[in-house]
Design goal:
two-stranded antiparallel ribbon, 10 strands
C-alpha cells in the first residue's frame, strides 16, 4: 500500500496523469526487465537510452521515400558513442542531428555510386505526427553504476526531457545536488540527447539545461501570456514546457550553445524570453503592437540582447528580423 505522503503519491503520480492529459503515452519501467519475452520497450540492456523500437516506425513515416538502409544509418549515427567528447559537445552534436536531421549516404543504383539524403527525426510543423512517450522509473546503466530515474520524456524514442522529483517537504535544491550531479557523472550518455531538465517537489519547480549550475535553474510561472498571473507549480511547468506543441517550439527555437569561461554552455530561454519572443514574432506576422513588457525585453542591452536575437532569428524568417528590431524599439541601420 502506498503511503499518502510519499513522493510517488503526491508528486510523481499527478505528474504522470498530467502528461497523459497532454497527450503523452505513459509506462512504468520499474519492472521492465523482469517480464518474460524481454523488455516491452525493445531494449536489450539498460545501457540503451534511445528507444529504437519507437524511433524506427516514426522515421519510416516521416521519410516515406527513403529505403531501410537510410534509417539504419541514421540510427547508427544518432546512437554512436560520444564518450570522448565533453557532455556539452556531445549534446550540441546530437541537438544538431535532432534539429536538422541526419545526413546519410545510400546507394544510388541508377546513377552508380552513392547519394546523400537527410533523415528527419522530428516533424516540427505537425506535433501529432510525433510519438510522445513518458517512462517513469527508467533504469539506466553507465560504465560502472546503474541508476533509476524518476521521469524521462521520449519524443520519437529519443530521451529529450529529464525530470527529477522530490517529496513535497524536501528542498528541490537537493534534486540538483544529490541526484542530478550524480546522474551526469554516472550515466552521462542519457544527457547527450537532453533538451532540458526539470526539478520539482510539486509546489516548487525549476528548469535548466545540462550545463546549468543550480543558480541558473529558473521558474516557469506563465503558460500563454506575459500578462497572466504567475504561478510556481509543477503543473504550470509541465503544461508550459511539455505540451507537445510548446515542447517542439522550445526545442527548435529557444536553445543556444555559447562558448563561455570554462567551456561550452547550453542556454535555454527563460519563461519571459520565450513568451516575449513569441509575442514579438506574433506582432510582426499579424501587424499588431507588442506589449510593453515585450518592448522592454527586446530593448534590453548587452549579452542578454545577443541571446534574444539568437532566439528571434531561430523563431522568425530572416526577412522579419528587421521588423523585429523595430518592434523592439531599435532603429534599423541606414542604407549605405
Amino acid at each position: 500500500m502506498t503511503h499518502p505522503y510519499t513522493e510517488d503519491a503526491l508528486v510523481e503520480q499527478p505528474a504522470i496523469e498530467l502528461f497523459e492529459k497532454l497527450g503523452w503515452e505513459t509506462y512504468n519501467g520499474f519492472r521492465e526487465f523482469e517480464q518474460g519475452g524481454g523488455s516491452p520497450l525493445g531494449r536489450e540492456t539498460k545501457s540503451e537510452v534511445v528507444l529504437t523500437a519507437r524511433l524506427l516506425p516514426v522515421l519510416q513515416k516521416l521519410n516515406p521515400n527513403l529505403p531501410p538502409e537510410a534509417f539504419d544509418l541514421a540510427i547508427e549515427e544518432l546512437t554512436r558513442d560520444r564518450s570522448a567528447m565533453s557532455l556539452a559537445q556531445a549534446n550540441r552534436e546530437v541537438y544538431d542531428l535532432i534539429k536538422q536531421g541526419v545526413r546519410v549516404k545510400i546507394a544510388d543504383p541508377e546513377a552508380g555510386g552513392d547519394r546523400a539524403e537527410i533523415v528527419h527525426l522530428i516533424d516540427w510543423n505537425r506535433p501529432k505526427q510525433n510519438d510522445f512517450f513518458l517512462v517513469s522509473q527508467f533504469w539506466v546503466t553507465g560504465e560502472m553504476y546503474t541508476r533509476r530515474t524518476d521521469l524521462i520524456g521520449f519524443v520519437n524514442g529519443i530521451p529529450l526531457v529529464f525530470i527529477e522529483l522530490k517529496a513535497a517537504h524536501r528542498r528541490i535544491e537537493n534534486a540538483y545536488k544529490d541526484n542530478l550531479r550524480d546522474y551526469r557523472d554516472t550515466i552521462p550518455h542519457l544527457f547527450w540527447y537532453n533538451l532540458f531538465i526539470i526539478l520539482s517537489n510539486g509546489s516548487q519547480s525549476k528548469i535548466g539545461s545540462i550545463t546549468a549550475e543550480w543558480e541558473h535553474f529558473s521558474d516557469w510561472k506563465k503558460i500563454n501570456s506575459e500578462g497572466e498571473e504567475g504561478i510556481i507549480s509543477l503543473e504550470t511547468m509541465l503544461v508550459g514546457t511539455c505540451e507537445p506543441a510548446r515542447l517542439l517550439d522550445i526545442a527548435e527555437n529557444f536553445m543556444l550553445f555559447m562558448e563561455v569561461r570554462g567551456g561550452l554552455a547550453k542556454l535555454l530561454a527563460k519563461n519571459h524570453q520565450y513568451l516575449g519572443v513569441n509575442n514579438a514574432v506574433r506582432c510582426v506576422t499579424t501587424d499588431s503592437q507588442p506589449s510593453g513588457k515585450t518592448r522592454r525585453l527586446l530593448a534590453h542591452p548587452g549579452q542578454r540582447q545577443e541571446r534574444l536575437h539568437g532566439f528571434l532569428v531561430a523563431k522568425s524568417p530572416a526577412q522579419n528580423t528587421r521588423q523585429l528590431d523595430v518592434c523592439g524599439g531599435h532603429r534599423p541601420p541606414r542604407a549605405g
